[in-house]
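Quick question: what would this complex look like in 3D?
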Amino acid sequence: MTTPPRRPSAADSALLGFAQEAELAARDLYRAAATAGSGGDETASIATLAAHHDAASQAISSLIGRDAPQSRLNSIFDAFESRFTGDTSDLALAAHELENTMVATHLSLLETLDGTDGVALVSSVVIAEARHVAAMAALAGLSPVADIEAYLDLPSSITPLSPEN
Amino acid sequence: MDMQNLSRRRFLLAGGASISLGALLAACGGGESSGVARIGLTPDPTELPDAPITDITLLRTATSLENNAIFVYEAAAGAGYLTGDAAKIAARFLADHRDHATATATLTEAAGGRAFTDPNPRLQSIYVEPALSLIAEAADPAADVLALAYALETLAGATYQMYTSLLTDKDLRRAAMGIGEQEARHAATLGSVLNPARLVSSHGSSVAAEFREDGEPLRFYAVPSAFGTQAPVPVTLGPVDEAGGRTTVNLETPYLNSMAYEYLDED
């Protein structure tokens, strides 16, 4: 088996650019939620999740340079905005769905990327965003016993984002 | 004149060195061995086996780590350390690790290798067995089991994260990280139970002052950082010693000196 390249290929850069757009949409959704005070007692955690998605977006930008679009995926932002700025339960359940979608999206990227630098970065983002899912399940008040699937399982109903849809 | 003296001195020094070297070579050379170890007699070196890091090695090591986790959860259940909701959560985690072990073993065989069926021997000896011994002496074994589980799950996620970029077969990446992301969810679930007051750590993140935490990071968070880490995972366990401290074990992802290489099966 041939050793894969380290640096992103041109096709990688396009996929990673799309991932950056998704990260920026997530960042802006959490920022909107923090501004609206939707996080209640966990507003600090919500603001920090905005920073985490921003950090992911910046890391992608560092990897692909001028190929980074530096703009958010408006379709995602628009689809989730009203729920992110509702009450804490609305926010938490919407964020839970969003983070599962982000995990599914990044997992699908891993099958396609050529360069291992991109694979390493996306893998580290997947770990963080999988943790976001469980945190949002807790914020939603779901039980880690009775509702443990909400913490641990990536629902089959979740569709990964892709540049084509 | 001075130059001549210097040259003569150098000549004499060089000659002395030559004589000394000659005497040493004569002492070492050629005689019959007395069987007593001395300078110049060395045993033949043992050749290290060829141990490339292949996809099969990575998958076998992943299985071995899953078996470490299974061992810990089974030991905790057998000792009755956990009860109630904690025991139910641990039982689910145990079932997941059994599934993961089966999955990585199946992938190993599909890649043409032989599945590893034991716990990782090095991790077992330097982390798992010492940790379980400390827990057996702890004032609150249940709290220590949960702390160890949090650390092990974090380590497992970090291991898949690292191995995914080392796999040469792209088709294996999603399967590996599909498991790794569930390990991360295990850790986060425990973090949310152990520290429900603050789910996401602000340490190391760029957030407004009003949202930052004061002081040192806490031991548990659902989300401790913006990215998955490759740093050692510390866990503090066991009884309080005479100095008032407890033992901290730093767990590290299995790498060159602790992988389940294929040659291990040949012993």
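Answer marked as accepted. The longest helix of chain A spans residues 10-36.
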